[in-house]
Amino acid sequence: MPHFIIDYSANLHDRLDFQPLFKALHEYVVSTGYFPLGGVRSRAIRCDDYRVADGREEFAYLNLSLKIGHGRDMTVKQQVAEQVFAILTDWLAPVTDQHYVAVSFELTELDPVLKFNRNNIHPLFK
């Protein structure tokens, strides 16, 4: 953890380069000292079937979900959420300055009893 998951409307596909965003997000969360590099993952999922507002073809959307493990206090979560949203909106500004895009973001803390994982990457970064 953390996991960054982006879903976005297909009409944005040719306008987006996710690697610079992923790099900035990974560097930021690791720099906080609250998240180990070996657990950070990012992915973008193109959505071909969608409708925004009244269905105009030029309307687009991008949603970023950030899932984190349990245990950080609300002050940390709020600070991280605000900075992640700033990174996202700065990266997306060239698109939102010229196109209609609904942008959303949510940070979710996963329940420690109901979250399972196995990761053999962590030892590489210790």
TrEMBL record:
It comes from the Bacteria. Gene3D superfamilies: Macrophage Migration Inhibitory Factor. Keywords: Isomerase. One of its GO terms (molecular function) is 5-carboxymethyl-2-hydroxymuconate delta-isomerase activity. Pfam families: CHMI (PF02962). Signal peptide: none annotated. SUPFAM superfamilies: Tautomerase/MIF. InterPro entries: 5-COMe_2-OHmuconate_Isoase, Tautomerase/MIF_sf. The keyword Isomerase applies. PANTHER family: 4-HYDROXYPHENYLACETATE CATABOLISM PROTEIN. This is 5-carboxymethyl-2-hydroxymuconate isomerase. It comes from Proteobacteria bacterium 228. The lineage of its organism: Bacteria, Pseudomonadati, Pseudomonadota.
